[in-house]
């Protein structure tokens, strides 16, 4: 017998049961469902909507159900559709018809919204924490590489030399904004929808503030129709998760490139790579690739939910049940990615010499030759032209700028003097970028200090 069976003349078609049920995936929220019910029934007692002895029976029953679920003694069933009705059914089996009083002044519509808020609130905290751990791993590597020079790229062409510490700190900043976005969303996640009823509020003299306090919510949905209709707090999470994954996938792409034989900038630890079933020599950066790949499903989950919401009339529609799998999947995907990237970054080996070699055998000090000429009062545009010609000359003569003799240099501009060699040396070039936010060692050290205040605050 269905909990809502009274109005029906025959059982539901079994395919309908299977099609409409969400228990296979929403059982993940069973704890939140019980916590919410405990607060609700406590409020029913406090407001004298239910007598205290019944409230006590229901509380004892819910605790018993919780115990049984924890001990693996219960089997959820699609016949009871979702986690809410499964638990209510278990409660009634446990304590008899009085269990049926739990749902007084409540609808599954506000109940499910409550569960989602409770669940996401918990997961937000975990994801923020995991992101901080990744930031810390990047910070530690950055600190070790305050003197490791490498090419900085634009268009994936060598552009200007940077410190590896600088490059890694770029990610720490990105992750900081991801964390801040998650934190800012808190005030929209941590509000109470319970008490909204099905859509119009309830006829019972409930006390929503009391429930909000018990469950430590900072506020209550002002309008009950809104409370049961919207899932914008989940969309926001999925959007923030998408940006976080975008950042992680860029980091992963670099790990893949850097660990290729062509670059050979880093070596990922064996424990975080996999082999090939046919090519014995292979060591593949599968984890980094998979994080990059899984970014697609996180974006998909965002677009999926936005599309579910589009054009949906108020208030609750069963379409909203589609809010769950994408959210759960995103949480799992973030857990996996962040949990693995942290030790991968911690254990990666950096091939300093190889990076240095890359940065000395190229023209990434060309801007510095132009800047040198500017300091000798040549307009930048003209200096750019001069250096362009010098680079072309070098390419034709198979040389780099630092291989040129002073005579050769002076054939491009007589403003060039002996001091050009120090001006173009890689350490000079890097440390000359000492304006705020630049790659000079002194600036990167400051960025690391700022990064530490971020990770210590959260
Ligand atoms: N399983 C449903 C969901 O996830 C719970 C709410 C059902 N409400 C309803 N009126 N059918 O959305």
Automatic annotation (TrEMBL):
Belongs to the lyase 1 family. Argininosuccinate lyase subfamily. It comes from the Bacteria. GO terms for biological process: L-arginine biosynthetic process via ornithine. One of its GO terms (cellular component) is cytosol. The keyword NAD does not apply. InterPro entries: Arg_succ_lyase_C, Argininosuccinate_lyase, Fumarase/histidase_N, Fumarate_lyase_CS, Fumarate_lyase_fam, Fumarate_lyase_N, L-Aspartase-like. It is found in: Cytoplasm. This is Argininosuccinate lyase. It catalyses: 2-(N(omega)-L-arginino)succinate = fumarate + L-arginine. It comes from Brevibacillus fulvus. PROSITE patterns: FUMARATE_LYASES. Pfam families: ASL_C2, Lyase_1. GO terms for molecular function: argininosuccinate lyase activity. Its EC number is 4.3.2.1. Keywords: Amino-acid biosynthesis, Arginine biosynthesis, Cytoplasm, Lyase. It is an enzyme of class 4 (lyase). HAMAP family: Arg_succ_lyase. Residues 6-300 form the Fumarate lyase N-terminal domain. Residues 363-431 form the Argininosuccinate lyase C-terminal domain. Pathway: Amino-acid biosynthesis; L-arginine biosynthesis; L-arginine from L-ornithine and carbamoyl phosphate: step 3/3.
């Amino acid at each position: 017998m269905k909990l809502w069976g009274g109005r029906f003349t025959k059982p539901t078609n079994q395919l309908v049961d299977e099609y409409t049920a969400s228990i296979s995936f929403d059982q993940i929220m069973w704890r939140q469902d019980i916590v919410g019910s405990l607060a609700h029934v406590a409020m029913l007692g406090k407001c004298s909507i239910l007598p205290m002895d019944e409230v006590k029976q229901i509380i004892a029953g819910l605790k018993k159900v919780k115990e049984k679920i924890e001990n693996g003694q219960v089997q959820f069933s699609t016949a009871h559709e979702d986690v809410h009705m499964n638990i209510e059914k278990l409660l009634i089996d446990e304590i008899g018809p009085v269990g049926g009083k739990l749902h007084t002044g409540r609808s599954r519509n506000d109940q499910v919204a409550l569960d989602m808020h409770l669940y996401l609130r918990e997961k937000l905290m975990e994801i923020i924490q995991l992101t901080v751990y990744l930031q810390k791993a990047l910070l530690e590597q950055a600190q070790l590489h305050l003197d490791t020079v490498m090419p900085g790229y634009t268009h994936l062409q060598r552009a200007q030399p940077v410190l590896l510490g600088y490059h890694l700190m770029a990610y720490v900043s990105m992750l900081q904004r991801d964390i801040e976005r998650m934190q800012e969303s808190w005030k929209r996640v941590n509000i109470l929808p319970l008490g909204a009823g099905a859509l119009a509020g309830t006829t019972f003299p409930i006390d929503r503030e009391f429930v909000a306090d018990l469950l430590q919510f900072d506020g209550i949905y002002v309008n009950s129709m809104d409370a049961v209709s919207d899932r914008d707090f989940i969309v926001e999470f999925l959007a923030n998760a998408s940006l976080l994954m975008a950042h992680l996938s860029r980091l992963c792409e670099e790990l893949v490139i850097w660990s290729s034989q062509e670059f050979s900038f880093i070596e990922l630890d064996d424990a975080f790579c996999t082999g090939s079933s046919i090519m014995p020599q292979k060591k593949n950066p599968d984890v980094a690739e998979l994080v990059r790949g899984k970014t697609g499903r996180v974006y998909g989950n965002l677009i999926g939910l936005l599309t579910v919401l589009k054009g949906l009339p108020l208030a609750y529609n069963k379409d909203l049940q589609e809010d769950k799998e994408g959210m759960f999947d995103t949480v799992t995907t973030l857990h996996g990615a962040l949990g693995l990237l942290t030790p991968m970054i911690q254990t990666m080996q950096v091939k300093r010499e190889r990076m240095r070699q890359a940065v000395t055998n190229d023209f990434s000090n060309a801007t510095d030759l132009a800047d040198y000429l500017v300091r000798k009062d040549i307009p930048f545009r003209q200096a750019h032209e001069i250096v362009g010609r010098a680079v072309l000359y070098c390419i034709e003569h198979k040389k780099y700028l630092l291989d040129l003799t002073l005579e050769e240099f002076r054939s491009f501009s007589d403003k060039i003097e002996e001091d050009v060699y120090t001006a173009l040396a890689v350490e000079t070039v890097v440390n000359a970028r000492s304006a705020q936010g630049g790659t000079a060692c002194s600036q990167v050290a400051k960025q690391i200090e700022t990064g530490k205040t971020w990770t210590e605050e959260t």
